[in-house]
Amino acid sequence: MNTLAVSVSTVYVGGAFDSIGGQPRSRIAAIDVATGATTTWNPGADKTVLALAVMDSTVYATGYFTSIGGQSRNYVAALDVTSGNATSWNPNPNGLVTAVAAFGSSVYVGGTFSSIGGQARNYVAALDSASGNATNWNPNPDGGVGAFLVSGSSVYVGGGFTTIGGQARSRIAALDISSGSATSWNPNANAAVDAFALSGSTVYVGGDFTDVGGQTRYYLAAIDSATGQVTSWNPSASNEVNTLAISGTTVYAGGGFVSIGGQRRNRIAAIDVVTGRATSWNPMASGRVRALAVSDSIVYAGGEFTNIGGQARTYIAALNSANGNATSWRPDANWFVHAIAVSGSMVYAGGEFTRIGAFIPLNRFFIAAVRRSNGLATDWNPSADGMVRALAVYGQTIYAGGFFGNIGGQSRWYIAAIDSANGAATSWDPHPNERVYSLAISPAAPTGPTIYAGGIFSSIGGQPRNRVAALDGVSGMATGWDADANGVVRALAVSASTVYAGGIFTLIGGQARSKIAALDTAGGLATGWNPNADVEVLSLAVSGSSVVAGGFFREIAHGFRPYLAVMTSDITSVFEGDPIPIEFMLYQNYPNPFNPTTTIRYTLPSVRSGKAKGKDGQPASGPAGVRSHVTLKVFDVLGRELATLVDEVKPPGTYVVTWDAKHLASGVYFYRMTAGSFTETKKLAVMR
Q1: Bridge partner residues of 478 (DSSP)
Q2: CA 228, CA 213: separation in Å to the nearest integer?
């Protein structure tokens, strides 16, 4: 699927498909918003449809086709919204049309054509919506146009051009809607811009760029329609974040990192939601933290650690939210804990363990209830036959997802509802055909709660549902909500009318969404919220207007935010306040091995405060001011200097250097950072 356009109760879709919603449809179709059913509207294009726009009673379509709606139409056509027939409107371009937008009495089109609507027009044109003739509006770019956004008196255009509207404009421009002249708005992207979206005074752009608006932005950016400024919250973790929980103004994060928010933090940390700085809370886990839950003044943690909060604790612990110390609560599981849920006087745990409980451990296969008061395992014993990966609680029911086929004394494949009193599986049985990785519950409707499930299934609740579904909390049947992800959904969170999903998908809710998306609770359609992570999202948490994501990503929300990011729920931005590091640090390059480019990140603290530390935790000397002279050099295995990447005085902060090793042969090399008395060397590998 390449494109979507929504009009009242209908979603129009275009692409390269030959069936949709169980009906044969050739590359273009209409879907009922309420039911998800394919309507009878059927124009039938002979080749791929690339873009759609709806205005009044007409659907405008562009693509590779030469026949659509029962008529010969080259690359662009107008279709009747009732019959699907092509109207008499026929601009007949001499080349491909890739983008379309309709506004007022004009239809704006972009592509690779040089003639359209009876006039010479290079790459972009405005067509009269009644006649199809080209208007006098003629920006005349020197390269292709692939994206439009019309707002007020401006037409925003993106593509591969370097001049447009009579001005030098690199890949992105705002054009006067009347004259076609370029306005003074000039973010200047360094590579093609392929997509636009607008929210308030912010223009969101996507494409192939790594620099736009004077800032480093990988493939996605938010640009102020007046100034082009972007703010960013950036804790900058050193490795993946697996789990998140929010309490008030604090974001608790767990994962594989050893540094976050400008501080050394082993695998678990508390981050200020406004500034992005790590707080003094520092439990120092000895292994990955995979699950977190917050209740009252206690943070419950599960994972792969054997020491946390200054105490020996095997795989599960309770931490004081004020100081990070482990409490006396000690269930001590015999293997990894993947999921934690708190309800009343109980902590429910799921994972790979077979024994758990303080003082007298009990046999509990993969799921257990532990008393909050003393850490003792209760008699509650659903006894799953496979790993439990997800838990959620509603009232007197515990919902579990994972790899099991039997739980609570019943055959239940991958998902089950368990009575909190006796541990027996209820009659609720969605019966997916594959594993469930994540669960979230929406507050009760008049008929009961909705259970959202994510995983690798393609069928659940008696309906085909690809990797994510909404299940009736009473019957277990799949509702009409169908977000249809094309990759694994590993994390879910629900807030009001929005379901947030994370995983490894690239298409969900009918839209291209890379690893993270916001879905409407009404129908499962993706909203305009689009942070666009570069690698897998593993965990999500929502508090108020804040959405926190953790995972293996390094780029998300139009910036470099490795492993952890906080975004607002209304627009794709992150909070201001990058943390000022208090330590010199040199990070492992990424990717590694690489060919031919890699990035190297390092941090410089404020040395004036006297708090700056080296890698051994001891004070590091430096200049008397807050700036540091830093060098970053590359050497071969014989110690010969091959390249100087940095040699200058810099203020405190986090820096990223990209190095191109195209002139070097495959092999092992070393890079060394020196700043004051701090020196650290790491290994990298070039692989051809």
Answers
A1: 471
A2: 6
